[in-house]
Design brief:
single chain, mainly alpha, 2 domains, two-stranded antiparallel ribbon, 3 helices, 2 strands, elongated
């Protein structure tokens, strides 16, 4: 059975945060807590901490594909673009770079 979207990404990202929290604890530091400000600060300080996804879309899922419109896009779903986009957010995390950032900043 196919899977996509938050059903796939949320458990994986939660595991990454668990790894980062354990990293903090092992260093005698506090857990990360509310993560949004930390993630955006990481991205602002070192954008390669998150791998920017610039190609792709979510017009197709395991259930169906949405039609393309006259512009070659779709009226459903989103395109990946440079920087933040609705499809991939800030991108996929690079855990080792996140740990390096934590060493320097938290």
């Amino acid at each position: 059975m196919g899977g996509d979207g938050t059903n796939c990404s949320s458990p994986i990202f939660a595991t990454i945060i668990g790894i980062l929290n354990q990293y903090q604890i092992n260093r005698g530091k506090s857990k990360l807590g509310f993560l949004n400000p930390v993630l955006y600060q990481m991205y602002c300080d070192e954008s390669t901490i998150l791998n920017d996804i610039t190609i792709g879309n979510n017009w197709c899922t395991e259930d169906t594909c949405c039609p393309t419109n006259n512009n070659g896009g779709s009226n459903f779903g989103y395109n990946a673009t440079a920087g933040y986009d609705t499809l991939t957010g800030l991108g996929t995390p690079n855990v080792s770079k996140m740990m390096e950032w934590l060493d320097k900043h938290l």
